[in-house]
Design a protein that fits this description.
By secondary structure, the chain is mainly β. The protein folds into two domains: 12-179, Beta Barrel (Cathepsin D, subunit A, domain 1), CATH 2.40.70.10; 182-318, Acid Proteases (Cathepsin D, subunit A, domain 1). It is built from three helices and 27 strands.
Length: 319
């Protein structure tokens, strides 16, 4: 979002978490199954938008309100403002890097129940941090973030045009064969492999003979490219202006804004993609298997209807 020359980039809590989150504990659930109950194996969830963020109504115990869909966060994140009375089950003081500086790790709390749409979770743990920077920039009350651990047994399709989220809980017997009827016409979309690493979505692109590693983050308002990449990559970038970044860190940093041309993702080619260019070195501490080369956020995801099968580790990009 560009506001008076200032880019507000909402950096996901994935950059604040102290490595991968522990496995959530549940009652009455088969081993490894995060979802305890659901009203239906398939649900259609309407969402609203705050700028470029997807807001979904949810209930944490008895507290109801807006949660941001954030595939860049490893799991459930709760806003400290509204969950102060919960006793912390685990606290860490270590700081890790984000785009705009270091951000303090969260402490962990446990909810008796959490639900949104037709999905229900029990005895679910969440990281508790301040989300005041998001609320202040969007002028909307936000209870928390819906991170990847809540979705890793699902197929998710996001339709930005209709403001609808299609969610299907994939049962064990469906793990190989299931796909939505929206995927029946295989000529309508490209399939791109993804990896789930520490509950983060990783995909790869090719440009100028170099393989680029991206995190896919629904809560990043812009696409980001690491300024440390080789010069041959930036031969495919047209810089249009200089901007200032703010995020969940305390610092503000300069960045460049421009258009990235001719990047290959899976079987499809993206002719032009708006990107921010900044140094991502401080983010390396958030990834156990090394640094990333960039982030794919709203400016990429909203160009298409987009889908994810987290069980089979595939991303679907409609043409």
């Amino acid at each position: 979002m560009l506001r008076n020359g200032l880019i507000i980039l909402l950096v996901s809590s994935a950059m604040a978490a102290d490595g991968p989150l522990p496995e959530h504990r549940h009652t009455a659930a088969p081993p490894g199954d995060q979802v305890v109950t659901s009203d239906s194996t398939t649900c259609i969830i309407p969402f609203t938008r705050a700028g470029n963020l997807i807001l979904i109504k949810g209930t944490a115990d008895t507290t109801e309100g807006n949660f941001v869909l954030d595939t860049g966060a490893p799991g459930l994140v709760l806003n400290l403002t509204y969950f102060r009375k919960y006793a912390a089950s685990q606290t860490t003081a270590e700081e890790n890097g984000g785009i705009t500086g270091s951000v303090r790790s969260a402490n962990r709390v446990q909810l008796d129940s959490f639900s949104f749409g037709g999905m229900h979770y029990y005895r679910v743990e969440g990281d508790r941090i301040s989300l005041a920077h998001i609320e202040n920039s969007k002028q909307v009350k936000i209870l928390g973030l819906l991170g990847m651990d809540l979705f890793r047994h699902t197929e998710m399709i996001i339709d930005y045009r209709k403001n609808l989220l299609y969610l299907h809980l994939i049962k064990r017997k469906e793990s190989v064969s299931y796909h939505s009827a929206q995927l029946d016409d295989t000529t309508a979309y490209h399939t791109v492999p993804i990896e789930l690493t520490d509950n983060k979505i990783i995909t790869y692109g090719d440009m100028a003979g170099k393989k680029l590693k991206f995190i896919v983050d629904c809560a990043a308002e812009s696409n980001v490219l690491d300024s440390r990449l080789p010069a041959k990559v930036f031969d495919h970038v047209t810089v249009t202006r200089r901007v200032l970044l703010t995020g969940s860190g305390t610092e503000k940093v300069d960045a460049l804004y421009g258009d990235l041309r001719d990047i290959q993702l899976g079987g499809g080619k993206v002719n032009s993609l708006p990107v921010l260019i900044t140094n991502l070195e401080q983010m390396c501490t958030a990834y156990n298997d090394g640094c990333i080369n960039g982030m794919l956020g709203f400016d990429f995801l909203s160009l298409h209807k987009i889908g994810f099968n987290f069980v089979n580790q595939k991303m679907y990009i409609w043409k």
